[in-house]
Here is the input.
Amino acid sequence: MSRPIIVFDLDGTLVDTAPDLLDSLKHILGIGGVADADVSGLRGYVGHGGRALIERAYAAHNTPLPAAEHDRLLALYLDHYGLNIPGKSQPYPGVVVALDRFTEAGFLLAICTNKAEAFSRKLILSLGLNHYFSAICGQDTFAFRKPDPRHLTETILKAGGDPRGAVMVGDSQTDIDTAKAAGIPVVAVDFGYTDLHVREYDPSKVISHYDELTVELAEQLIAVAER
Here is the structure.
């Protein structure tokens, strides 16, 4: 039987990347003519991706955003972000201890994120976390992405795991919907990037710190899912 596996989302779940994503947003807004934009109120939306973030920023400043300009700014946003990884990004409190805890217990670990795979790998490597993960799968790893459940199940298989012995950990409706569609229990962190509290999306469990993500909890969730 395959080893049990924990699959993590990345931004807003494992690593607080918002400071760098918002810095890149502020950078391109200046290029786009939205000078001195206050982007602090957009933290809850960084998990929606760069295109949506730029659109929300322009809407918040009541500034038109033609499609061609949107495309240009997105490319600049991604370039700026990629060149500055890891920047200020840091794992959330308790992450490294939790990764050690599950590794020692014999779990496989993987990342399933809608961040580009190259950016994801660069970030995880630069933070010294690469050795924990059997697979790091981004939005462009497969021909589908979250909330398509295949993104999650194929990540599990790529890591050498079995979806029947898996738990997903995420911070958003997308993560929760993906796991539910795959029939996999999902733990939601309540400190990530979402406009509504994650409890509104009915995850299997909500945690406020990685100290709460125990081996016993994961084993219980897997056992219930197998019934």
Observations:
- The chain has a mean pLDDT of 94.
